[in-house]
């Protein structure tokens, strides 16, 4: 089946696989400033049409499907909500910045059936200061009868005259809270699901902070006797590869290869930093929900794209 891109009023586009909308990418969100307005991928669906993402959950309204979210950009917050302040816990500050869309470079499905979208952004603080320009590219393609793959590339250039450290609440002093980067939030029914690594399966408490090239999450759907598997892969050229992972399963479902989990990355004036990720989204049989081999095979498919 050939994928198709459909544009929606200059704020978003969708990628369809026949009758199924695999993804919607909103690049001009209407989010309030408190949620650090940023582009996001939601809904995300399997090839059979089952939704595997969650938008604006009541517990963390700044979580939006899959988004490139950074909580510590110098003293600014491009994650949303309160900022972790050492010795004071989380404090709501006037520092929730915006990733602002500036122009589309490409939006097409090529001869190989790969949907590609590229656009330019600017990172603007709540106080109106431009910190980064960014070129972001997203692709989608089918890889199996029951799976498709997403790639996410970003190149961020520091346009200020000062070095900018990228970090996490852990680099600011909060233990085991190294979130930041490409962050996926799964549907409510995935709560209590299974995290999968090359070393086996476990819960968020088991694997959070571990270093892995890839990690998967297997979850069950409500209403139907079915399960889905999400596998995220970190490109070998990414800074701090293999990353530490911020992952949860008991409180809610999330995956995040966190490049700044416990170590800042300082971006010099004029320097460009790049990151690349692959994500596989698959329908799986309920009996295969703990099958590490299935996740590893999907990781291999995605790695070949990176």
Write a brief structural summary:
This protein has 306 residues and is mostly beta strands. Helix content is 6%, strand content 48%.
Helix run count: 2
Q: Using the coordinates above, name the CATH class.
A: Mainly Beta
CATH topology: Beta-galactosidase, Chain A, domain 5
Low-confidence stretches: none
Give the amount of beta strand, in percent: over 45%
Q: What structural class is derived from the secondary structure elements?
A: mainly beta
Helix content: under 10%
Sheet having the most strands: 9 strands, antiparallel
Give the ordered list of helices and strands.
Answer: EEEEEEEEEEEEEEEEHEEEEEEH
Which overall shape is indicated by the principal axes computed on the Cα atoms? globular
Mean pLDDT: 96
Integer count of domains:
1
Q: What is the C-alpha radius of gyration, as a whole number of Å? A: 18 Å
Strand order of the largest sheet: 9-10-11-12-22-18-17-15-16
Instruction: Examine the secondary-structure arrangement and name the CATH architecture.
Output: Distorted Sandwich
Please report the distance between the alpha carbons of the first and last residues.
22 Å
Number of strands: 22
Primary descriptors:
single chain; 306 residues; mainly beta; Beta-galactosidase, Chain A, domain 5; nine-stranded antiparallel beta sheet; seven-stranded antiparallel beta sheet; 2 helices; 22 strands; globular
């Amino acid at each position: 089946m050939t994928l198709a891109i459909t544009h929606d009023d200059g704020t978003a586009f969708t990628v369809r696989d026949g009758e199924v909308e695999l993804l919607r990418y909103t690049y001009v969100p209407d989010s309030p400033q408190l949620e650090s307005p940023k582009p996001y991928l939601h809904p995300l669906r399997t090839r059979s049409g089952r939704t595997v993402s969650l938008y604006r959950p009541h517990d963390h309204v700044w979580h939006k499907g899959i988004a490139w979210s950074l909580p510590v950009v110098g003293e600014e917050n491009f994650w949303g909500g309160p900022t972790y302040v050492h010795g004071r816990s989380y404090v709501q500050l006037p520092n929730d910045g915006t990733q602002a869309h500036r122009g589309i470079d490409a939006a097409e499905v090529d001869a190989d059936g790969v949907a590609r979208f590229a656009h330019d952004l600017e990172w603007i603080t709540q106080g109106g200061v431009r910190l980064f320009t960014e070129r972001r590219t997203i692709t989608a393609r089918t890889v199996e009868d029951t799976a498709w793959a997403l790639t996410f590339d970003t190149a961020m250039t520091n346009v200020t005259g000062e070095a900018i450290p990228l970090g996490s609440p852990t680099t600011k002093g909060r233990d085991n809270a190294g979130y930041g980067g490409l962050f996926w939030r799964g549907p409510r029914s995935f709560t209590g699901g299974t995290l999968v690594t090359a070393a086996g399966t476990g819960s968020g408490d088991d694997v959070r902070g571990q270093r892995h090239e890839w990690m998967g999450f297997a979850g069950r759907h409500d209403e139907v006797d079915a399960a889905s598997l999400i596998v995220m892969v970190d490109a070998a050229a990414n800074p701090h590869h293999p990353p530490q992972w911020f992952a949860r399963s008991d409180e809610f479902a999330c995956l995040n290869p966190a490049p700044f989990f416990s170590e800042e990355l300082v971006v010099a004036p004029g320097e460009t930093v790049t990151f690349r990720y692959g994500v596989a989204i698959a329908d799986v049989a309920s009996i295969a929900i703990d099958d590490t081999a299935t996740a590893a095979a999907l990781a291999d498919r995605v790695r070949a794209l990176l």
